[in-house]
Design brief:
Number of strands: 11
Distance between the termini: 37 Å
Number of helices: 9
């Protein structure tokens, strides 16, 4: 029996670097509309919802025909926000889709979902793409290392693995950039949302380490697609330029 798979886009109005970015205009549409429309093209999603704590975002979503769920403004993370929504809906798998990636590729969502749709023993999944040495030096880029079955061993802002001088020469792109899209089995999400932050999570400021510290294995799908998040007004201008270059 095919699992019911729901994509949820957490979107809040408050942002220290870019307040109201979910409603920022891109090609005549609010940014959140681009994310919803592209996510809806993923073959494996049965439904796409927006989870928000702001009526302005909820009203904008409803105006373009999307479905918005109001959530508490007290949530410390997007994971907590989608967990509130998931408690009240029937589903098997939940995809946490970042609300600030208006160019997300629908096929990337399917790549992340497929391992969990095919294997009910996997509780959580995410994405990574290969990257070079220079990009890996940036602490804002989260790195991940995998075991031989494709499960995450660790995530870090530091450059992992550390390549010693006497190690075999690295490949052209020896590192894996973690991309912030997550797939959860419903019960796994609710369990993690109910747990307090863990020591490694707090040190690295990486929420996914809570799962690893509690023994939840995270299956990592590898993609070649790049991620273009909008964190600042300058990022928005960059995406506007990129959209003009896309084929109609």
């Amino acid at each position: 029996m095919k699992p019911r798979i729901v994509g949820i886009i957490p979107a809040r109005y408050a942002s220290s670097r870019f307040p109201g970015k979910a409603l920022a205009e891109l090609g005549g549409k609010p940014m959140v509309q681009h994310v919803v429309e592209r996510a809806a093209r993923a073959a494996l999603l049965d439904e796409v919802l927006v989870a928000t704590d702001d009526t302005r975002i909820a009203e904008a979503v409803r105006r373009f025909g999307g479905k918005a769920c109001m959530t508490s403004p007290a949530h410390p993370s997007g994971t907590d926000r989608i967990a509130e929504v998931v408690r009240d809906i029937a589903c098997d798998l939940v995809v946490n889709i970042q609300g600030d990636e208006p160019l997300i590729e629908p096929t990337v969502i399917d790549q992340a979902v497929t391992p969990l749709a095919d294997d009910s023993s996997i509780g959580m999944g995410t994405l990574a793409r290969p990257m070079g040495v220079a990009e890996a030096a940036d602490p804002s880029k989260v790195k991940v290392v995998l075991d031989r079955q494709g499960f995450a061993l660790y995530f870090s802002r530091s450059r992992i693995p550390y390549i010693r001088d006497d190690a075999p020469p690295p490949t052209e792109r020896p590192y894996l950039l973690h991309m912030g899209l997550y797939v959860y089995r419903r019960e796994t999400l609710l369990r993690l949302a109910g747990l307090p932050p863990t020591p490694l999570e707090e040190r690295e400021r990486l929420e996914q380490l809570r799962a690893l510290e509690h023994g939840v294995r995270i299956r990592v799908a590898i993609t070649e697609h790049q991620s273009f998040g909008v964190d600042t007004p300058a990022d928005l201008e960059r995406v506007r330029r990129m959209m003009k270059e896309l084929p109609n």
